[in-house]
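REVIEWER CHECKLIST
Item 1: Sequence provided? yes
Item 2: Single chain? yes
Item 3: Sequence as submitted:
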Amino acid sequence: MQVNVGKNGDFALISQEDSNLVLNYIWCKNKSGYANSKEKGKNITMHRLIMGFPEGKFVDHINGDKLDNRRENLRILNPSENSQNQLRHKNSKNTYVGVSICKRNSKYRSRIQVGKKTIVLGTFSDEIEAAEAYDIYVCQNNLYHKLNFPEKKHQYLEKEISLKSKNTATYSGVYKKGSKYIAKLRFGGKQITVATSASEIEAAELRDEFIVVNKLTNKLNFPGKYTNFIPSKKEKTFTQVVDNTTSRILVTSRPDSILLISSIDEEKVKHGKCYISSDGYACIYIDKKHIRLSRFILDISDPNVFIDHIDGNRLNNCRSNLRISNCKENAKNKLKKANCSSKFIGVSFDKRSNKWLSSIQRDGKKYNLGLFSSEDEAAKTRDGWIKTNYPDDHYKLNF
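Item 4: Structure as written out by the authors:
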């Protein structure tokens, strides 16, 4: 079913079942290309209306057409899934998503980004073949990336298609060059060749042997042969004892900073590089990933889960100071704003009464708790109210 969008002849597609819902609004096309309307003075988009305005989620158009709002073309994604689902960059010199020209041999390289990992799918003489290899990987692994040829999706799923790539090998760090297999890895800051063999398996085995002898952290092709092998990891973070339960991380770039962790986490962080980001959070670079230290310590990777510093100090990453939160609760645990009339949170000076007003913010509303002659009394009243009525909430207390 078609729905008019604006006065320029544009129209959106919707499912028949959504006609009563959608036709209650007057629609126009916004600058981003979506069907847009207003409800109670606020902008709404047709695709989010149809899917019920999922909180903290994205509504994606599977075929990339922002005006195709049929239910079979809409899907709900979380932030990490949506970040994968990007169109080719406008300034890209490449025709297809996931395809680039390899300058070394003028062939087309097909690769895909999944999370923070780049997977190389192969090199191809034909650009379209490289683009199809990308699409096949997306479809056969149930990913949310945009397809180069969405009309071929069913063909990709129905047929068992193997990706054909030239000059590749089965094993990690092993490449085919002519009739030989070359085993390479990074060692001493340089890419070196550790073996050349007519046998692919032998090249892979010799590479593993080099890794084990030098106690490197590179991936083994045959880990079952070296069950007792423990790679030697370089210690990158050093700590200083504060007390029986707390340690201080020594940050090279910020020697005066007081970055705290629980003593039990010393072993966990020592192989990563800890630093303080520009927004004041403690972070760690480990396994080729930049992670906030609080999330690393609590093993939280879900972007929809918040980690709250109870005392508001972003450098205090002791386990006793970290708690799992959500967007709503995290917003309550805020420090006092600068240039306020009071030194306490939730306290302000009321000029009309010449007294201190105690208040609390909750669900977007401000609740006044009373006027007091003493600033301290107003602050303690707020704290007491929170402890009595909302003991499990994440409000920051004055005392």
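Item 5: Key structural point noted by reviewer: The longest strand covers residues 107-114.
Item 6: Recommendation: ____
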